[in-house]
Amino acid sequence: MTLTVGRQSADSLDDEILAGLQVADAGAEQPGAFKFDVAIVGLGYVGLPTALSFSAAGLRVLGLDTSTARVSAIREERVDLFQSDRERLGMALNDDSFTLTRDAGLLAEAASVIVCVPTPVDDYLTPDLAILRAACHTVVEHAVPGQVLILTSTTYVGSTRDMLVVPLAARGLIAGRDIYVTFSPERIDPGNNRHAHEDVPRVVGGVTAECTGRGVATLSGYARSLYSVSSAEAAEMTKLLENTFRAVNIAMINEFADACRVLDLDVMEVIRAASTKPYGFMTFTPGPGVGGHCIPCDPRYLLWQLSRERLSTPVISRAMDGIAARPRHVVDRAREVLSSAGVALAGARVLVLGVAYKPNVEDIRESPALEIAEGLLAAGAIVVYHDPLIASMRLPGGHELTSVADATLFDADLVIVHTLHRVMDRSWIESARLILDTTYSLKSVPQLASL
Question: Catalytic residue at 294?
């Protein structure tokens, strides 16, 4: 395990943090104190892989989820996982040290409790904290002295204190004395298996130095590298920076793609050329928008909090506005492409190819395809979609669509290429009447239009 604190190595930790680490190590030598080494609250795209990583490392793991359907799906191995995690799940389900439950009372039997629940935004792009508040309330309700509590869900700065430290104190459990509270932002990228969970560094910030040490000791159960910061707030802000950085750059490259189209240039050629520079440039690619519960949501938590402080952040605000507007831009381009062929959008047959928010995941949360399909229907188009990973989807306005089994049978006036999964047959795409490629990945053919 590699531990760094700020710019310093573990060798230069101050005495207080070292003391915390020593206490944590001593606690770890008493396996009889708790039935479980770690409990994971929330077994979604972050929680389940995290639980499996701890289990693969030989720890006793409790996985808690309030959804009966989710727990059943995990037990039946009907979940979206990398092959490596799918193998881990099979082994975990046959291991007595891995327990799945809906019984929150078992949290009291875990040495460490890690909260991994979603933090979405509502229809008004305002943070929706209901799920997180409920999870933290449950954790506090069942907390016992000596436990380590780690919040990983992305939220506003100060949330760890507001949702864990303060209510714990009301129960007589003082963070850093009776119980140990930290924030360590999740860093799981669904659909990307280039980085093993164990290899991605974990940032850890405790409410006190001893809390940091305890958090480090817990997460070192599977993570090979940990980076300690001075406070829970610094760790919370770290995650907001990571995803706000991505949001701003995605908004910028989308605008750059529009500029290249107007100037009759291939934006992907330009990006590839710029990427040859070994410094000062980082590759981002344009698309139809962004989905999931990270980039479209996390910067909103920062903007929401800063609005209370009356602090203007125009670059971030404009970037998020640009991201939110991108699906409407796809609808406008669909209208333009059809019009150039003498076809009105109203009454046109439009096929959306792929609706998951990113390739190779069974996840439609915040997917741009939802708003794109809604916009096309509102304009009078006849809309279907094909996605072998998403059997059905409910649009914001309440319409429910079901994936067509054979995209070639729809006889579309326009195919909007939104998400390309590895399992998709792409051989027929270039024979479509008109193609609007929002992925910027298809070869140039006469009927192909870029976003």
Answer: yes
The 10s digit of each residue's pLDDT in 269-295 is 999 999 999 999 999 999 999 998 788
Neighbours of 432 (CB within 10 A): 22
- Across the beta sheet with 414-417, what order do the strands follow? 382-386, 349-353, 414-417, 435-437, 448-450
Q: Which residues pair with 115 in a beta bridge?
A: 41, 151
DSSP-derived secondary structure letter, 39: E
The residue out of 204, 230, 256 marking a domain boundary is 230
Prediction pTM value: 0.87
Name the token pair of 409.
């049978």
With a pLDDT cut of 90, the percent of the chain lying above it is: 84
What pLDDT, in 10s, does the model give residues 5-57?
553 333 333 343 333 333 333 333 344 589 999 999 999 999 999 999 999 99
Phi, psi of 380 (to 5 degrees): 95, 5
Q: How many structural domains is the chain composed of? A: 2
| Structural domain that includes position 377 | 268-450
**Per the residue annotation, which of 116, 136, 294, 297 is the catalytic one?**
294
The span from the CA of 335 to the CA of 340, in Å, is 9
The span from the CA of 137 to the CA of 111, in Å, is: 18
Rounded distance between C-alpha atoms, residue 159 and residue 165, angstroms: 9
Contacts by 391-400 with C-beta closer than 8 Å and gap 24+? 393/355, 393/364, 393/367, 393/369, 395/370, 396/123, 396/370, 396/371, 399/373, 399/374
Q: Is 301 part of a structural domain of the chain?
A: yes
Q: Do 223 and 275 fall into the same domain?
A: no
Give yes or no: residues 149 and 9 share one domain: yes
Instruction: Tell me: do 428 and 283 sit in the same domain.
Output: yes
The enclosing domain of 387 has a CATH number of 3.40.50.720
